[in-house]
Specification:
about 110 residues, about 0% strand, elongated, mainly alpha
Length: about 110
C-alpha cells in the first residue's frame, strides 16, 4: 500500500465496505422503538448487534466483489472507457490474488 497502488486500495476499500454491509442486521430484525418510556437509555443502548460472518461468508462476499468488478468491466466496451475497464480488471485481480493466498495458507 505504501507504493500507492490505487487498484489495490480501491479494491480493498470496496470489499471492506461490502463486508461491513454483510454484517449489518436486516431492518426487519432490528428492535423497534415502541413507546418513548420503553426506549433504551444510555450510550449505545439502541444499537443492534452486528452479525458475525463465518470464513465462508467472507469468501463469498470477496468472490461476489470479484464477479461484480469483472461484470462491470465487461460492460465497458467503448474505447473511451478502456482505462476504467482495465482498472476494474486490476482490482478483480488484486482480490483474486488475496483470496488465493488465503486459501493456500488455510
Amino acid at each position: 500500500m505504501r507504493a500507492r497502488d490505487r487498484a489495490a486500495v480501491s479494491a480493498l476499500r470496496g470489499t471492506l465496505a461490502a463486508l461491513d454491509n454483510a454484517e449489518a442486521v436486516p431492518v426487519d430484525a432490528a428492535p423497534s422503538a415502541g413507546a418513548i418510556e420503553a426506549s433504551p437509555v444510555g450510550v449505545g443502548a439502541a444499537e443492534a448487534p452486528r452479525r458475525a460472518l463465518s470464513e465462508a461468508d467472507v469468501v463469498a462476499v470477496v468472490r461476489a466483489e470479484i464477479e461484480e468488478r469483472q461484470a462491470a468491466a465487461a460492460q465497458l466496451t467503448s474505447p473511451t472507457h478502456a482505462e476504467r475497464a482495465a482498472r476494474l480488471h486490476a482490482e478483480a485481480e488484486v482480490l483474486r490474488r488475496l483470496l488465493d493466498e488465503s486459501e493456500a495458507t488455510a
